[in-house]
Write a structure and sequence with these properties.
The protein is α+β, with helices and mostly antiparallel strands and 375 residues long. The chain is 57% helix and 16% strand.
């Protein structure tokens, strides 16, 4: 040990001028790196109002550490000095540690910055978002610094194969043990970042007893709470919710309604032919968009028509009121024209023993065509 120290001191004494020049060069490199950092931050600041990614870039640059610049400066000038092997190895080890840690810091800042930019404008539960970001920061920090530690150990000559294998097996065991928890957690993160729905949105999903429609009250890390239209608070796991088709009614700008209408078989064919035009007139009179109206079927007790029209509004209450206005307008028009709505009826026929059809009442029974007739 003393011999190594003596040899290093002797080398330093013999190369005072070279060490002075190298120190000056290293100081110049350090100053240049610092100046480059300042220039990049200024450029990012000018782009910030128009480029959201510039904020992330500026934060990454701002995370550049002084000790990394110092280690990089010394590493760049050591080739000029040709120091003893022990000194050169020490400088290389220190630079490897500094570089690995700096890259981990940059990676952490970049990943978290991109995630935070993605969550801007999230209108959900602030506590849920805060908890999610805390978990994300922890997972990202552990991952990047764990990789940095493995890189450092590998460069120091440590055999990391067994360590990596052990960590992989441990990770698999933990993942299997907490599979349900992690599944719901990542589903919650997917809801927060992808935004298929937000707190306050009205959605429909498939429950155990059929479709459930309600308003999203809270998006938690494991489950989502939905207040159904019938008043119950439904709690469903995030994984189960995302595994099915979810209909989100929030943000819609149009409601389409299908209105079936059945009239009696006694309706005159010429009048029946006018029914689609009458329905279209009512839709246009109410100020809505007519799609189509047409005959659809001869039903058991009625001649069926179908009206399809759009209401340009995102408000469900206004849309239902528009549907009611059109329906009542059709009812009013049919009453004015003497068009009768059909209702379920059934006619019975009586047969004689020999199979001949016979009237179930006397032939001289008063008929609707002659109400004044007497029996």
């Amino acid at each position: 040990m003393n011999e190594q120290r003596t040899s290093v001191l002797a080398w330093a004494a013999e190369n005072v001028s070279e060490l002075t020049i190298a120190a000056a060069v290293a100081a110049g490199v350090f100053a240049a790196l610092f100046g480059l950092r300042v220039l990049l931050l200024r450029a990012a600041k000018r782009l910030t109002p128009d480029h959201s990614l510039a904020i992330v870039f500026a934060d990454v640059v701002r995370k550049t550490k002084v000790w990394f610049n110092a280690a990089l400066s010394v590493q760049l000038v050591q080739g000029f000095l040709h120091p003893p092997q022990d000194v050169a190895r020490t400088i290389s080890i220190l630079f490897t540690i500094a570089a690995a840690l700096q890259v981990a810091i940059w990676a952490r800042a970049l990943i978290l910055g991109m995630i935070e930019r993605r969550t801007l404008g999230h209108e959900g539960d602030a506590s849920t978002l805060t908890s999610a970001m805390a978990i994300i920061r922890l997972l990202v920090s552990i991952t990047v610094f764990l990789i940095a530690g493995i890189v450092i150990l590998d460069n120091l000559g440590v055999n990391v194969t067994a360590l990596v294998a052990g960590m992989g097996i441990g990770g698999i065991a933990i993942g299997l043990a907490a599979q349900g928890i992690f599944s719901d957690l990542f589903a919650a993160l997917s809801i927060i970042f992808d935004k298929p729905f937000r707190v306050g949105d009205v959605i429909t999903y498939q429950g155990k007893e059929g479709p459930v429609t309600g308003r999203v009250k809270k998006i938690g890390l494991k489950s989502t709470r939905i207040l159904s239209l019938t008043g119950e608070m439904r709690i469903i796991g995030n994984t189960q919710l995302l595994a099915q088709e979810v209909t989100n009614y929030t943000g819609r700008q149009m409601h389409q309604f299908k209105l079936p209408v059945g009239v009696t078989y006694q309706t005159d064919p010429a009048v029946a032919a006018e029914i689609p035009a009458l329905m279209r007139a009512e839709v246009e009179r109410a100020g809505h968009h007519f799609v189509r109206a047409a005959f659809v079927a001869f039903n058991a007790s009625s001649i069926d028509f179908e009206l399809l029209f759009d209401v340009e509004t995102g408000d469900a209450g206004k849309a239902r009121q528009a549907q009611q206005d059109v329906a009542l307008g059709i009812l009013r028009t049919f009453n004015e024209r003497g068009i009768e709505f059909a209702y379920p009826t059934q006619t019975s026929f009586t047969a004689a023993p020999d199979g001949r059809m016979i009237m179930p009442y006397p032939e001289d029974w008063p008929s609707a065509a002659d109400p004044s007739a007497k029996s």
